[in-house]
Amino acid sequence: MARYIGPVCRLCRREAMKLFLKGERCHSGKCAIERRNFVPGQHGQNRRVKLVGYGLQLREKQKVRRHYGLLERQFHNLFEKASRTPGVTGDVLLALLERRLDNVLYRMGFGTSHPQCRQLVRHGHILVNGHKVNIPSFVVKPNDVVEVRERSRNNPTILAARDATAHAPAPNWLEVDREALRGRVVGLPKRAELVQLQMNERLIVELYSK
DSSP labels for 124-148? Predict the structure, then answer.
C-alpha cells in the first residue's frame, strides 16, 4: 500500500494551518505551526505569495487530501465516485472521506491521528459488524458497528489514545461507547459537523471540473 512517509509537520507548514497529523503533538507547544509558521524551504520566511484562481484551488485540494492521508490517485478516484453519486458533489465527497474506516476510528477517539488509525486497521485490530476489516479505505454505512476486537482491547496504544482524546466529543453521526471500545454509525455525516478543518470543497470541485 503506497503512503506518504516524509516529514508530516512540513505539510502543515506548507498549508499554513494545522492538519492534525501528529496526534497530541498538534495540541502542544511543539507543534510546527506554533514554532515556525512559514512555508518550508531555505527562503520560506521571505516568501509572500498571493494565491488566486488555480493556486487557491490547488492548495484547498492539497490541504484536504493531506488531512485525510490520501495520495493523489486515491483522492481523485474518490472525487470521481462522488461526482457520479446523486447530490451536491462537494458534500458527497466530504461524506465519503468522513466515512472511511480509518477516519471513523479517529472521530471515535480510538487513535490520536489518521496515520495511527490507519495502522490499527492494517494490523487487524478492528471489526466491522463482527468481521475483521484491514482496509483503511473501507466505507462504513448507517447501522454499521465498529469495534476493537476482543484480543486487542488491552492494547496500550489504543487505551492511551482513548484517554488522550477523552476531551473531544464524537460527532453526532456516531454513537460511541468508549469503555467498550465500540461505536455505531447512526447516520450520515452532515457538512455542518465537519468543523476540525476549515475547508472549501467548492474549490476542489472547480479544480477537478476543468
Answer: T-EEETTEE---TTPBP-TT-EEEE
Sheet of 145-148, strands arranged across: 131-132, 126-128, 145-148, 182-185, 174-177
Q: Helix or strand or coil: residue 155?
A: coil
> What is the model's pTM?
0.83
Query: How far is it, in rounded angstroms, from Cα 32 to Cα 25?
Result: 9
- SS3 for 54? helix
Q: Could you give the domains of the chain?
A: 9-97+196-208 (1.10.1050.10), 100-187 (3.10.290.10)
Angle at the Cα of 119 from the Cα atoms of 115 and 124, rounded to 5 degrees: 155
**15-19, 108-112, 126-130, 167-171 — most confident range:** 126-130
